[in-house]
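Quick start: what a row looks like.
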Amino acid sequence: MKALFIGGTGNISTPVSQKALDLGISLYHLNRGYRQPLPGVNYLTADITDFEKVRRVLKDHHWDVVVNWIAYKPEDIERDMELFEGMTGQYIFISSASAYQKPPVSPVITESTPLKNPYWQYSRDKIACEDLLIKFYRERGFPMTIIRPSHTYYSVIPVALGGWEEFTIIDRMRKGMPTIVHGDGTSLWTMTHARDFAVGFTGLMGNQRAIGEAFHITSDEVLTWNQIYQAVARAAGAEPNPVHIPSEWIADYAERNGFDSVRGTLLGDKAHSALFDNTKIKKLVPEFQATIPFAEGIKETIAWFDDDSSRQVIKPETEKFLDGLLTLVPQPVVG
């Protein structure tokens, strides 16, 4: 199998790339060449937004599978249609589980759960991309597959505030500072390690039964946000010191005080319980089984950050935001 990843060196795509190589897939990455190459991958250098250069770089290739890890808007899909129609046996679009109905009618999500997110433009753009791909599949036979990851981690710290590519949350935990948890911390959530995700994903590559279909690929482990923050703190060698603040308060505070909006990521995603029925992916890829519990996987992630000080990014703006949020919490009266 000959596959092209547009991107391929990110938080999810790096473990998927490694799994593809382990399976003997002839893997190419198309990117700008800014990140360290992955041994075994064939590299094509171009910015996907430079249409003519990409066309020249790809002109002698035909692909069994093309995966675009960095498509976000309908115009990205239209461009890819022009580039890859008739040139690939399968095109995989990376959507998002945040596209599912918010607030949910049922906390258990299947692939047939409606797509609707009034809170987050990112999610609405992903829905629009899906709609366009479905149109191209129905009207022109474009061989697309849609994948909806949900909070998949490997080289990021998967918390709601102060994490992801930042180290701010870990630094504050290690200093014994309060950790802000949105809501009361009891809503249910799903964390998926990218190596587990990779097993399901590569099983769909080149799979003709996946054409025209959408899948999510997640763990079956169910955690509260309180448990998630507890696991993160303990993996960092700290004890959790949670302070609970309503998600609406957090979003309103950010917007009133000129910080980046978190309304989408909270009210359009993490403020709601999200449990996933993985029957569909398991039926097509029987070998898929999430085996890495979050308490173990997050230890590996934090060790990865600890291994290189350049990864330990602490942003003053985030510190200011988190400190400001703590002023929303009533202080105990002494005496």
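That is the whole record. The chain has two domains: 2-150+194-216, 153-190+220-273+292-326. The longest strand covers residues 26-31.
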